[in-house]
Amino acid sequence: MEEKERAAIHLAPDEGRMLWMVGDLLTLKMVGSDTEGAFALIEEVTLPQGGIPPHMHTREDETFYVLERELEFVVGGRALLATAGSVVYGPRGIPHAFRNVGTTPSRMAIYITPAGLEGLFEEFGEPVTDPSSPPEGPPDVERLGALNQKYGVEMPPPPEQ
């Protein structure tokens, strides 16, 4: 069997595929096809009070490295304030969420192992034409639910009011 030739990859700060994902700006820096499925690396900019509601991955672990500002994480029921330089690990099977608690956009790097989850972002995310202007209107929740199921992401039902 012939072995695939591997090569180093370099991306400049402004390189990578940019997508809007439910109000957050994602830049896909490395995806599974770049790393033979080992990992994906995503840069995420989250607007003030934005973030991701509680969810759980059944296939991947996520490591969040906060680059700018501060985010509040809830991982396995534990609330954590993560400022620039902090790292938060969310293993598969553990519910987690995060929210930008500041007044300016936050930025973090997300390391996903193994790769695969980025497929959800590629299928659901909206291509970026203007990084300063997120798309208007609510996300297609039904479509997102179907893609979550496809990619092994579980969302608990919202708490009853």
Describe this structure in words.
The model has no long low-confidence stretch (mean pLDDT 92). The chain has a single domain (17-130, 140-149), classed as Jelly Rolls (Sandwich), CATH 2.60.120. It contains three helices and twelve strands. It is globular and about 55 Å long. It has a seven-stranded antiparallel β-sheet. A five-stranded antiparallel β-sheet has the order 7-6-9-4-12. β1 and β2 form a beta hairpin. The protein has 161 residues and is mainly beta.
Structural key phrases:
about 160 residues; mainly beta; single chain
User: How many distinct folded domains?
Assistant: 1
Secondary-structure class: mainly beta
Helical residues, percent: 10-25%
CATH classification class: Mainly Beta
- Report the major sheet: 7 strands, antiparallel
Q: What is the overall pLDDT average?
A: 92
The SSE string, one letter per element, is EEHEEEEEEEEHEHE
Share of β-strand residues: 35-45%
Which geometry do the CA atoms define? globular
CATH topology: Jelly Rolls
Count of strand segments: 12
Total number of helices: 3
- What is the CA-based Rg, rounded? 16 Å
The CATH H-level superfamily is Jelly Rolls
Secondary-structure arrangement, i.e. CATH architecture: Sandwich
Distance between the termini: 59 Å
Low-pLDDT windows of residues: none
